[in-house]
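pipeline/complex-builder :: batch 7 item 3
reading input block
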Amino acid sequence: MLLIIAVPQGAEARLRAGLAGILGAEGLVVHLDSYPEGEPQVVEGDGYFLGVHGADHPGIVAAVAGLLADLGINIVDLSTHVIPGQVPVYVMTMEIVAPQHLGRRALEARLDAVSKEISCAITLHPVETAPGL
Amino acid sequence: MAVRDILRYPHPLLGQASAAVTELGASALETLLSDLVDTLDSSPGVALAAPQIGYSLRAIIVDVSRERRPERRMGHGRVILLNPRVLESSEQQVVREGCLSVPDFTGDVPRFQRVLVEGTEPGGRAVVLESQGYEAIAFQHEIDHLDGLLFLDRLVSRRRDLFPRRTSGRS
């Protein structure tokens, strides 16, 4: 369970002590961290959904994320999942924002090369946006 | 020239169905239309519906030629329609929409890729427009405003489809 809460000034220590008392008795673990202040950053560019899947092995995230970093692409959302089985399958979905000048074809070509290198399927779909309504 | 404030959710007017415009040429209508034009021109958006600026009347303005990205500018230029409605529509796609009345969020909503929209021009002429792409989405979004609907009402999953605004197609 993940909660975002607002705590009155000066009440954090009491909250921590109280949580430890309740959750400790139940054998549960609690992390309490302060949330960074400020507005979320708005990223400019072309949005895409990126999907990656294949037999699980080390280096999948590194290869994909490394290419994206090289191309100046921002990862704005990411989730991963391993489907257990005789051959565990790794599934990763991302939402990325690419610089406009890059273009979809060029991005697909580079992803294609990484796809072969890591033996995973990689799919790319543009996020259709209509911001100014 | 009157630039009106754009109402923000949860203003109650944004949740109400607007009334049909029946008295063409009335001076109140002139004021409404010039307010729509002036407010759109001073906003970062490409379309507005009358209830967004405080008039509970069925009037919209759509002008995708204001869009910064050339590929989104295709359409009929500046269109002002009274009592617009969607006559026909094609298959749907999921679109990540923003709204001037819900400025901090975007949401993934299903929209028709092509629509046939009918309405009345301010001069009284009835028109039927075929529209696709960004402009078609804009028509559907603005006509929704006339029915008291926001993109928030069309989300399939709040958890999966609603986001703090984090990407922008505009500078």
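note: DSSP finds three helices and six strands in chain A.
queue -> next item
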